[in-house]
Amino acid sequence: MRRWLLVLSTIGLAALLLVPFMPSLVYDIFVMKALCFVLFACAFNLLLGHTGILSFGHAAFFGTGAYVTGQLVKEYGVPTDLGILAGGLVAALLGAVIGALAIRRSGIYLAMITLAMSQLVYFFFLQAPFTGAEDGLQRIPRGVFLGIIDLRNDTALYYVVLAIIGAGLWVIWRTVNSPFGHVLRAIREHEPRAVSLGYPVARYKVMVFTISAGLSGIAGSLKAIIFQLAALSDVHWHTSGDVILMTLLGGMNTIFGPAVGAAIISTLGHYLDPFGGWVTVITGVVFMTCILVFRRGVLGQIEQRFQHRSEPSTSTEVHAEPDTSNSPNGA
Amino acid sequence: MPAKNAFTTIALSSAVLGIGGISSAVADDGYTDDVVRIGVLTDMSGIYSDLSGEAAVTAVEMAVEDFGGEVNGVPIEVIHGDHRNEADTGASRAREWYDSEGVDMINDLSNSGVALAVAAVADERERHAIVNSSSTVDLTNEYCSPYVTHYTYDAHSLAHGTGKSIVEDGGESWFFLTVDFAFGIGLEEQVSEVVRDAGGQVVGAARHPLDTSDFSSYALQAQASNAEIIGIASTGADAINAINALAEFGVTPDQQPAALLLWYDDIDSLGLETAQELLLTNAFYWDADEDTREFSERFYERTDRMPNMAHAGNYSSTMHYLKAIEEAGSDDSAAVSEAMREMKINDFFASDGYIRPNGRMVHDQYLWKVKSPDASEYDYDYLELVTTIPGEEAFQPLEESTCHLLDDE
């Protein structure tokens, strides 16, 4: 099984590296957009899949990253690299605040608190004078990365985006497979027991909220640089809903399942364009089919298939982590 | 290893395909890839799909057919896409069209955020974009471009058309019901300025969120203001709900509502009973004269609806663009841009219309009044002309524009 995964991930990585050389097959800016959602969904899944916290307001972090970076780079002439970093930091800070409030409750109440907080953030960006409300923050310059790489060149931008997303995914992978990640899993599986073992559960939750928000912010920052605009749709609750959809579709009990989900949803939106108003219907049908047919999500189902080839699967609560933890699973 | 071989084959073949893609985009005879391609980027599935949407695509297709399907022997192709009211989706679609699908001009562009984003891409890629169904004046000011044309109407023409005419007719005190979005607030500010300049006064404003269904408290605020005119600074469903609420709460007969951006289709939704006496500024009405009727009836046969001003603008602007290509003898953006700005526009939509250096198409606007149900004699007989507003008065004076293209002259 591990050999197959290695082959698959090598092919995937090679394909991603080759994208700028295949303009007639796939459009690089579309791939960059999909990559932003890949990082966003994987970061979101740190909470949902690995800690068992459903946040219904993650667009707040994504959009905050986009607006902060956009404003800093456009109005204050901050270099792009620092702008992206600042976007991530501000989003992380916001994540710490919202997280600290939200984790006082659990389940549906927690989800409602995050939704309410993200609506506040939405309202802020709707009203703040610098955002241009529904017209968006337009014409953000792409600038120069690290003082040498001119990002106005789409190919250069593509590799920078790929590298940053790759680094972000590596951080997620490290987090999940660290002692910290094991505590998170303990919290997900049995919170009272984690408390009784002496773990400061609340602090762990705020911490993972912060990491997840920061990475989501970086995904948003990158999107603002790629499209040179930050718009209200980035902070809208639709985007919070989309990221949940991506995560469930790809498989929330895996590390990189949400990446697959993000790729599928972005691709559907992009290539079904000629169908006009039918896109929403088709996406709905695909989602329902996936939920009914592979309940673990696309990647979750594939992993399970490989793991339980010989043995009959009787247990419904098998988690894939023990195996993925030491397999070099690619993006 | 078979897997490795398969991979090498895939990589090689994709590289070959990639090179093929590049070479096919090389220009020939002044026409990029031997076809003039027009993309209609519009809202196919969201709130503006009824105002522009598929009918906008039909309008552009009609223009291409009426032009003869080819220009100087080069075929014309129309494709369409959905921006889903997201600026980033619109921008990425526009980039892809310009970069890898050889689109020469993008038309329609409902939603101001999308229009601004696509205008930025058009400016960068030096290809044409024609905005027909969004209102932001930034397109011809801060963000103007030699390749961007703002065609049908803008916030300035709406404000000056309706505001000025009403104050001159004696409607001096105003109250606004404004949608709390940049579009609504901008419109309110512009009309307030016009009203004050013309000697009227603004007594207050109530701001409501987008997609409000319950306007009762706003209607009562409007009533309590005792203003003669209630300015409705919103559009689509919000404007319809606001006007309905004003009628239900008995505000309407005593205080006159003025819709600042009401579409022809909205009157259909409101019904003449509620909408009668409403004043609105539109650049086009299907039943204005022989020429508009001729176009509108053909449009009706294909879409089962009468065209609104955006549809008429889509047709007229596409026609003008194609004539400019014919004149320039090439689809080279700079040459076409020059020809577009030199040639006058004379068709059912505009008479002696012309495009200013900042991209603003200047043509007459009309103030209409909605007929009462008794006065409406046949289907779709909704409006009567109050006054014609000359283009020079309706649109922002060129010297006020902050467009950087004007600095060189």
TrEMBL record, chain A:
GO terms for molecular function: branched-chain amino acid transmembrane transporter activity. The chain crosses the membrane at residues 38-61, 82-103, 109-130, 156-173, 206-231, 243-269, 275-294. Residues 312-331 have a biased composition (Polar residues). One of its GO terms (cellular component) is plasma membrane. It comes from the Bacteria. It is a multi-pass membrane protein. The keyword RNA-binding does not apply. Keywords: Cell membrane, Membrane, Transmembrane, Transmembrane helix. It is found in: Cell inner membrane. Residues 309-331 are annotated as: Disordered. Coiled coil: none annotated. This is Amino acid/amide ABC transporter membrane protein 2, HAAT family. It comes from Aidingimonas halophila.
UniProtKB/TrEMBL annotation, chain B:
InterPro entries: BCAA_transport (IPR051010), Leu-bd (IPR028081), Peripla_BP_I (IPR028082). Residues 1-27 form the signal peptide. Coiled coil: none annotated. Keywords: Signal. Residues 36-371 form the Leucine-binding protein domain. Belongs to the leucine-binding protein family. This is Amino acid/amide ABC transporter substrate-binding protein, HAAT family.
